[in-house]
Amino acid sequence: MDTDRGKVLKAFRLWVGKTQLEIALIMNVDQSAISRIESGERQIDDEIENQYVEACGGKTKLEELFSELQRQKTSIGFIETKACHNSRRNL
């Protein structure tokens, strides 16, 4: 399983404010495939990872995420927690 890679991709998706379904539609795959990628259940190669990154806004956006994490001295897990908190608040 490739859970670290999946966690980074999920955090990136949440950071840019997209849903699994939005990424799936852009990549022309089922939403369940995105779920399996993010959970580490599905191994992906660099090509699939690049497609995912592009669906989320590209490498420049990914670099912005890592810069923000360094600036705030936080981790990828912080983004997931924050996104979950924000989505519950919007219900």
Automatic annotation (TrEMBL):
Residues 9-65 form the HTH cro/C1-type domain. Signal peptide: none annotated. It comes from the Bacteria. This is Helix-turn-helix domain-containing protein.
